[in-house]
What we know:
This protein is of the alpha/beta class. Helices cover 43% and strands 18% of the residues. It contains 18 helices and 19 strands. It has helices at residues 33-42, 63-77, 88-107, 119-138, 155-161, 179-182, 188-195, 206-219, 252-260, 262-274, 293-306, 328-348, 365-374, 389-397, 413-417, 429-441, 444-460, 463-475, and strands at residues 6-12, 15-19, 25-29, 48-52, 80-84, 144-148, 167-171, 200-203, 224-226, 231-235, 240-245, 279-286, 314-321, 356-360, 377-380, 404-408, 422-424, 486-488, 498-500. The strands form four sheets. The protein has a nine-stranded mixed β-sheet with strand order 5-4-1-6-7-8-11-10-9, sandwiched between helices. Strands 14-13-12-15-16-17 form a six-stranded parallel β-sheet, sandwiched between helices. Strands 2-3 form a two-stranded antiparallel ribbon. Helix 4 (119-138) packs across helix 5, helix 9 packs across helix 14 (389-397) and helix 14 packs across helix 17. Bound molecules: GDP-alpha-D-glucose. Residues 31-34, 36-37, 173-174, 248, 284, 286, 319, 321, 362-363, 365, 368, 385-390, 393 line the site of GDP-alpha-D-glucose.
Amino acid sequence: MDAQRLVVVSNRLPVVLGKGKLGKWNVRPGSGGLVTALAPVLRDRGGVWIGWLGVTKEEGMKSSTLNRLLSDGGFEIGYTLRPVELSAEEASRYYEGFSNEILWPLFHDLSSRCNFDPAGWKTYQDVNRIFAEKIIEFTDEKDYLWIHDYHLILVADQLKRLGATRKTAFFLHIPFPPLDIFLKLPWRFQILEGLLEYDLIGFQTTRDAFNFLRCARMLKEGTRVLGRGQVRRVVTPEREVRVGAFPIGIDFREFSELASGKEVFELSRLIRSHFPDHKLILGVDRLDYTKGIPEKILAFAEALERYPELQGQVSLIQVVVPSRTVVPEYQVLKEEIERLVGEINGRFSQVGWTPVHYVYRHLSRIQLVAYYRTCRMALVTPLKDGMNLVAKEYCASSISKNNILLLSEFAGAAAQLQRGAILINPSDREGVADAIYRAFSMDQVEIRERMQRLRKIVRQQDIFHWVNTFLEAGASKRLEDFPLAEMFVPRSHGSSKTVFNARAKHLPEAV
Ligand code: GDG
């Protein structure tokens, strides 16, 4: 291993394991914010991605089968996949327990939803150590480690405890809470100290970075924050860490090109034909209480009530993607959403018009982009969100520029998109209802100007911009400075030979 490689570490690998009809295991690409964002970055870079597959040791996959499946998958995507194996108990306490019942709600300012069960804390540390051990096995001191998200805050600390020296950077995809909320965490000092073991810590917004800097100053004695601008230096009595805001972007070109393609065009026509002359509002959310789905449905009902002329004219298509389905709280949320949809449809439906179309499943990328392209308005209502990629994907797919984005003030994306989007407070039901009505009354020139502004920002600050600014801050490198993948064409595709993968030039789009 001569050259420095980019090594991504995240809770989940970017693929999911499933069983086919004959009971044989197979791998499929994964979904979710982190995977959608990072997959195009590492593609063809010949780096390594270390993570858990979402299948526990007890589920009985042989290590040899696992490694074969992953090496085939890695060939196709141009980087190596390295699995971390967890037992059912480890997965449950670390992932469902500590990560998703403590850190997730707390960091989204929803401390009343936290279950501060101390059992999860020990397992969280153990699993972070297991990740650190895998990192030591699969990387060397030259590699650049980029560790992702709240599941893995203690990895740098565990690497140090195991005596390993690595260059480490951490990116938090979710918000970082203000001091008074962070203080509620029983393990606040350990989590803070753990973060301070990285060389660079990246947040989605300056608000999150400032929240963290304040916590560091108040909770760690002798800490000073130096410098100005995007990246600050945090000097503690033991070490120096850099901290900055790096708003994540999307692969704008991919969404824009998909939206212009024939498949999306035809699907878009089909969707339209089911809603003749109706104005369509779109909601796309993972099933999660932070996404404000009930609040959105209630605000839409409020709009129908306050502005009866919208009845028979406007429909909400709400796509909910199943997520964390084993957690009882998420099942309760699903039932609540379904009850609300039923109530509103029961109350307002007319012959030929149903107000809410509810889709509870994972859509293909083509279907998703077809909805983005077709719907006149996207209603994005998180109560709090690190960034919210759906808002950006909607803009990238709005090739006709006749679409309107209504965006929660509490999404990280609001900081970048506020000049083109209509900002809303999702808890203000009447305010959102008024905004929906006003947006549909807006003149075409203003709609186009707003969408053009949005598309420009999303295009300029895309996923490659994000990764390059992060790598420049952390390693004084850009993505292209890491070696291109040297890929061996697998035997089944002909003779075994080495090829070099070249990424197509990243062309700007006229907006
Ligand atoms: C976390 C943070 C932050 C959704 N439905 C389908 C589908 N998706 C894809 C979207 C989008 C992703 O899932 C969702 O991303 P979000 O950003 O909205 O939300 P989280 O999953 O909560 O992500 C978030 C993100 O990390 C990145 O840093 O923005 O704040 O919470 O990419 O396209 N994809 C497909 N079918 C669907 O039905 N194919």
